[in-house]
Design brief:
Helix content is 42%, strand content 13%. By secondary structure, the protein is an alpha+beta fold. The chain has a four-stranded mixed sheet with strand order 1-2-10-7, with no helix packed on it. It has a three-stranded antiparallel sheet with strand order 3-9-8. A hairpin with a 7-residue loop joins strand 5 and strand 6. Bound molecules: S-adenosylmethionine.
């Protein structure tokens, strides 16, 4: 099991500036317990919180996890122990430490099995339409929360705990993994609006699956790139113009489609866009952000450069068609003029 816990005299909230007015406060939110609420207008791209974990653990059988957490807790100073024990527990019973972990742990990386809990970040409630993003920086071992859209004073700060999909799928997964019934703005919509959102989210999942299909990228890259364009429009519609990390991933997929067929010019633009989104949602110092920045400057450094064909071969500086934005987008996504 991993252990990267807050040490005795470590302040787990980094770079707090006591002379500046606080960005948020913790308070009780109807139906959700405690949550964080903005105390001032927070511009898009603001780093709201960065914290080191209090405790880090892999999932294990309840008995072994409880024993592990108990021994890790003993290593913490009294204040950190109190912070851990004060966190919400949706699974009270014989394994209280494991219950706190299951209620609060955020994965250390998008596909990681390792989870961590934080004193302040773990007070942030879930929304299916979040205004902030949580990111684990595997270089600095710090979790960050960035505003992915402008947040108004008085608005609750929210992140997403789930993997998307239509509301029935999200509800089942949130109930199973975190033990609660979601009461966010999307899930509380009137049925007709929720149905429209569900249709968009199902289509988003379907397009995402198609774009990830390597055989399609190999044989029909033009179709895959068109799917990227459709997905981008849908993401913007469903996430109120602020799709956050989902857009960074989409632009990276488009980068890969172009680079596997030798198109350095478009690949470079897509990598640049992916970097811009990451910069806004997670800062420029994550390994993922640094990698896309490097690829924007040097797209052929990607290991799959011309892996499928050279039929789209361009130089990075190929003059793109189109004097205006719309023409540029059509050039970028290889859509007919
Ligand atoms: C990580 S904690 C968040 C902070 C928590 N509200 C507290 O009081 O400490 C996760 C728990 O908050 C509550 N919660 C978070 N998002 C919610 C939502 N959208 N709807 C209802 N409850 C929510 C659930 O009880 C969930 O298990």
């Amino acid at each position: 099991m991993d252990s990267d816990t807050a040490s005795k005299d470590q302040n787990s909230v980094l770079e707090q500036k006591p002379d500046e007015p606080p960005l948020f406060e913790a308070k009780t939110i109807p139906l959700k317990g405690i949550g964080l609420v903005a105390l001032q207008d927070i511009p898009q791209g603001t780093l709201i919180i960065q914290e080191k974990p209090l405790l880090v653990a892999r999932p294990g059988a309840p008995g072994t996890l409880e024993a592990f957490l108990s021994s890790e807790l003993k290593k913490l100073d009294k204040s950190s122990q109190r912070q851990f024990l004060s966190l919400h527990n949706n699974f009270p019973g014989k394994h209280p430490f494991a219950g706190i972990m299951k209620t609060n742990a955020l994965p250390c990386g998008s596909r990681s099995e390792i989870g961590a809990v934080y004193p302040t970040i773990c007070r942030i409630n879930h929304s299916c339409l979040p205004n902030s993003q949580n990111t684990w920086n595997s270089d600095t071992k710090i979790e960050t929360i960035f505003a992915i859209r402008p947040i108004n004073c008085g608005e609750e700060i929210t992140i997403t705990y789930d993997q998307g999909g239509p509301s029935a799928v999200r509800r089942a997964s949130l109930k199973q993994s975190f033990g609660f019934q979601c009461s966010c703005v999307v899930c509380s919509q009137p049925p007709a609006l929720l149905r429209e959102s569900d249709i968009r989210r199902s289509r988003i999942q379907q397009l995402d699956g198609q774009i990830g299909d390597p055989i399609r990228t190999w044989k029909s890259p033009g179709e895959s790139l068109k799917d990227c364009h459709s997905l981008l429009q849908l993401l913007k519609a469903e996430y109120g113009g602020y799709p956050g990390a989902l857009a960074a991933r989409l632009y990276y997929d488009a980068f890969q489609i172009c680079i596997t067929h030798g198109d350095k010019a478009r690949a470079s633009v897509f990598a640049e866009r992916s970097y811009d989104v990451r910069l806004m949602c997670e800062g420029g110092d994550t390994p993922e952000a640094k990698k896309v920045k490097m690829l924007a400057a040097n797209p052929s450094a990607h290991r799959s450069f011309m892996a499928y064909s050279s039929k789209w071969k361009t130089t990075k500086k190929e003059k793109h068609g189109g004097a205006d934005n719309e023409a540029f987008e059509r050039w970028l996504f290889r859509m007919s003029l």
